[in-house]
Amino acid sequence: MSLKTLVTSPISGFALFVLFLALLLRFSITSQRLFTTEELALFNGTDPGLPILIGILGSVFDVTKGKSHYGPGGGYHHFAGRDASRAFFSGNFTGDGLTDSLRGLSSTEVKSVVDWRDFYLRSYKPVGKLVGRYYDSRGNPTKYLKGVEAKAARGAQLLEKQKIEEAKQPQCSSKWSQDEGGEVWCDVGYPRLVKRPIEIALTGKMSKRCACFEESQLGQPGLEVYEGCDYNANRCKV
Ligand SMILES: *[C@@H]1O[C@H](CO)[C@@H](O)[C@H](O)[C@H]1NC(C)=O
Ligand SMILES: *[C@@H]1O[C@H](CO)[C@@H](O)[C@H](O)[C@H]1NC(C)=O
């Protein structure tokens, strides 16, 4: 029987189709390998014969191509062989800093961790899921993961709102150098410090930004002249 008749004969065509499905299924299963914490720990980069894996929000990625960063002695070696989701935000690699819990983080902080996961999705090969906080023993997302994703979406909305608000009042130009320190200036208008109200909802902390106001706006409440800077100056040392 020639290949052509094999493929076109209805029964072997069906068999090939089943074979194809089986391969597809096998592929999707192997690309969705489930890891326990202990299994993932073996891929910490110390054994050069094994790939280097990291977990973030329960998704496991093969980062072997970034060996210089993730291998022993690399700046990101702390992430190898574990899920240290929180440290992507905190940069704290000591003790409990290396946890996958995002407890107590604000919505934008949670969003920054989700953004990191999306970076790995774009840049590295996903190889499976870590069973635990983010995925259950069947590889399905847990309530915790859904909660994290919902919180990150709220963070994204708040940031978008802040961006729209702040676009209404142009930002100061700024520069900084070791010798001269910092400077802010406005090509049009005068630099003033203003509160960022949405920031409180975002991080629980009040922060300020520099925005440019025209002469007619300078009487608005809440505008702060830089310390040591003239009321009418359009450049201020900071
Ligand atoms: C790192 O991985 C090696 C094997 O690849 C394993 O023997 C070792 O226990 C792991 N280290 C930790 C801290 O899990
Ligand atoms: C890192 O996290 C640990 C445990 O939560 C904490 O004790 C330590 O103070 C943190 N370090 C920094 C630099 O935040």
UniProtKB/TrEMBL annotation:
Domain Cytochrome b5 heme-binding: 35-131
GO cellular component: a single term: membrane
Transmembrane domains' residue ranges: 6-25
Entry annotated with the keyword Membrane: yes
Superkingdom of source: Eukaryota
Sorted UniProt keywords: Lipid-binding, Membrane, Steroid-binding, Transmembrane, Transmembrane helix
Molecular functions (GO terms): steroid binding
Family annotation (Pfam families): Cyt-b5
InterPro entries (UniProt xref): Cyt_B5-like_heme/steroid-bd, Cyt_B5-like_heme/steroid_sf, MAPR/NEUFC/NENF-like
Family statement: Belongs to the cytochrome b5 family. MAPR subfamily.
UniProt name for this protein: Cytochrome b5-like heme/steroid-binding domain protein
Organism: Medicago truncatula
